[in-house]
Amino acid sequence: MGRTKTKKQKASKTTEPSTVQSPAVPSITALLEKAQALIVQCDYELAARFIQRILDQQPSNAEAKEMLGVAQLELGDIDAAKQTFFSLLPPNPDAPSPPPPSAHLYLAQISDEDPRLALQHYQAAVELLSVQLKGKERAGNNAPSDDEIELKSNIVRALIGQVEIWMDPSYDLCFEPEAERTCEDLLETALKVDPDNPEALQSLASVRMSQQKPEDAKACLEKSWISWKDLDLDHPRVPPIPARLGLVRLFLELSLYSPALLVLHGVMTADDDEVEAWYLEGWCYFLMAEQAKENAGTLDDLSWEELAKDARDRLETCQLLHTHQQHSDKPLLEHVQELIANLEGMGIKASPPDEGEDESDAGDWVDDDANSEDEAEDVEMS
C-alpha cells in the first residue's frame, strides 16, 4: 500500500479588518483645555508643546496663539512673545477680525522702551473692549452679567495703565504740559465705566498725592478700600495682589498704618511668600516704631521696642525670601538692608530662628520644580 500524501490545510483568509486601532488623536478643544491647565500650573514649557500641536493642525488658531504668547512671556522670550501677539493684529493676514484686545494689552505691558507705543496699545484695547461691552449691554438685562463686569474691569485697567505711564518719572511724558490733564481725563473715563472701581479710585488717590492733596487722596483711598475690604479674598471685586500692595504703599505715605496691616494680612493669607508684602509689613512696623518713640514711647499700647522688633523680624524674613527666590528687585533689598542696619544701631536684634512661627515657616520651602519632570512624563502626549 503506497504512502498517501497528507493534505495541507489552507490557511483561512480573514475577512474581518484588523482589530488593532491607532491611538485617538486629541481634539483641538481637549488640547486647548490641557494647555490652559498647564499655564495655570505654571508649567509653561509643557504648555507650549501642547500649543504647538494645535498650531500644527490650525496655524491661525487665535486662542492657541494667545496662550503661546503668554507661555513665551513667562519663559522670558520677550521677542518671540511680541511676534506672537503681533500675529494676532492687522495687517497680519491671519489676524482674526476683530482682533483680541488681550493682544494689545500684552503688547502694552512689554513695550517698556517705547511709552507712546504702549499708550497706543492700551487705547486700542480700550476701544475694542468698549465695543464688546456695548454689545453685551444691548443683549443683556438690567443686572450686569459676569462678562460685563469683567469687560468693565479690563477697560478700567487699560485706562489705569495709561495713567501709570504718564505718571512714571522714568519717562519724559510726566514732564509734558498735558500730563496732568490727560491723567484726570483717563481716570474720569474709568470712573464713568465703573464708578466704584477700587483700582480707579486708588489711581486717582495716587494722582492726588502727586498734586500735594493728601486729604483728597485719603478720601479716595478710604472709598476704594471700603468697597472691598469685607469681601472674600476670591471675590472678583477684590483687586489683584499688585494693586493691593500699591494701596499699602499709599497708606504708608499717609501714615495709615492699621489699614495697611489689614491689607497686608489679606495678601499674606493668599501668598505668604510674597517678598514685597514682607518688606512693606516690616517698613510699616518700622514707621510705627519711629512714631511711638515720638509719642512717649508707645503706639496703640505697644512700645517702640516691640514695634521695632516686629519690624526687624519681618525684614529678616523678607531678606531670606528675596535671596531664596533670587528676586529681581534690588532696590527693595537695599532698602531692607538699610532698615535692618538702622534697627541694629538702635539695639534691636533679630529673634532666634525658633522663637516665632514666621521665621520657621519662611524656611520650610517646598521645591515645586522637583516633581515637574515626573509629572510631565505622566501627561499623555499622543
UniProtKB/TrEMBL annotation:
The taxonomy runs:
Eukaryota, Fungi, Dikarya, Basidiomycota, Agaricomycotina
Species of provenance: Lentinula boryana
* Stretch forming the signal peptide: none
* Region of interest (Disordered), ranges: 1-23, 346-382
Q: Where is the composition biased (Basic residues)?
A: 1-11
User: Keywords on this record?
Assistant: TPR repeat
Query: Bias regions of kind Acidic residues — which residues?
Result: 354-382
Q: Which Pfam families match?
A: TPR_19
- Which Gene3D superfamilies has this protein been placed in? Tetratricopeptide repeat domain (1.25.40.10)
Protein name (record): TPR-like protein
- Look up keyword ATP-binding and say if it applies: no
InterPro entries xrefs? TPR-like_helical_dom_sf
